[in-house]
Amino acid sequence: MAKLNIVALTGGIATGKSTCGRLMKEMLPEVVFFDADASVARLYADVEVDAELKNHFGTKVISKDGGIDKKYLRDQAFSDLGVKVFLEQVFHPRVIQECLALLAETARNGSSRLFVADIPLLFEGGFDFGQSANLVVASSRETQISRLKNRNDWDDDIIEGVLRSQMPIESKLALADVVFWNEGPPKILESQIHRYLMNLE
After folding, report:
1. Cα separation of 69 and 62, whole Å?
2. pLDDT band for position 165 (cuts 50, 70, 90)
3. Quick one: which H or E segment has residue 180?
4. CA-CA distance, 31 to 70, in Å (whole number)?
5. Quick one: residue 38, left, alpha or beta (phi over 0 = left, psi -120 to 50 = alpha)?
6. pLDDT digits (tens, 9 = 90+) for 117-154
7. What spatial distance separates the first Cα and last Cα of the chain, rounded to whole Å?
8. Residue 2: which of 132, 109, 118 has the closest Cα?
């Protein structure tokens, strides 16, 4: 049985983590990929999570359809550190539990030689699931801002709040074992990922 490589994938918002993950799956179809953002999206439908959020925030967090108003939570988290900490306490343990469950299943069935967990707040949250390497997708701050304006149509205040809530890219680079620098044409990122995958044991 081939050795299972266990790695984390992270970066800053709009640096290209999703693109990197898509390329990895295209180049190595057997890869098992855990997406923390997708996990959080699923957890909003969890009965316990729903109850915790509504008990904490009251009616203000209930959307018109009776679910959770994610925009309200996002705005609150970017303006109030206490809200950010509370949400992390609600979601992070559950996300890491899902990650570990998928990792255990992958190790047990031997279906792949690469397990990648895409964790946007890997360093901020202190996530450790036994990974042998931390991969960081990075770009300049100017590129992040440009992408957020084009992709999300956010104004400057929202963008600054989001970037301020995350660890600076320079700090993440210092903690990285592998860096994918995502500036310029897509082919540049593709070649970096291809080279990394080719060098896997």
Report:
1. 6
2. confident
3. strand 178-181
4. 31
5. alpha
6. 999 989 988 999 999 999 999 999 999 999 999 888 88
7. 12
8. 109
Which amino acid, one-letter code, is at 10?
T
The stretches of the chain forming alpha helices (DSSP H) are 17-27, 36-43, 47-57, 70-79, 81-109, 141-152, 156-165, 169-175, 186-198
DSSP state of 14: T
Using CA atoms, how far apart are residues 180 and 200, in angstroms rounded to an integer? 15
Tell me how far apart the alpha carbons of residues 174 and 164 are, in angstroms, rounded to a whole number: 18
Question: What does the alpha-carbon distance between residue 170 and residue 141 come to, in Å, rounded to a whole number?
Answer: 10
Q: What tokens appear for 113 in the block?
A: 């030689």
Q: Encoding tokens for residue 60? A: 């203000």
Q: If residue 33 lies in a helix (H) or strand (E), which one and from where to where?
A: strand 32-35
The pair of three-digit structure tokens given for residue 95, joined into one six-digit string: 């996300």
Measured CA to CA, the distance from residue 198 to residue 163 in angstroms comes to: 33
Integer Cα distance of 30 and 153 in angstroms: 35
**What are the structural domains of the chain?**
5-198 (3.40.50.300)
Global pTM value = 0.90
**Rounded CA gap, 82 and 88, in Å?**
10
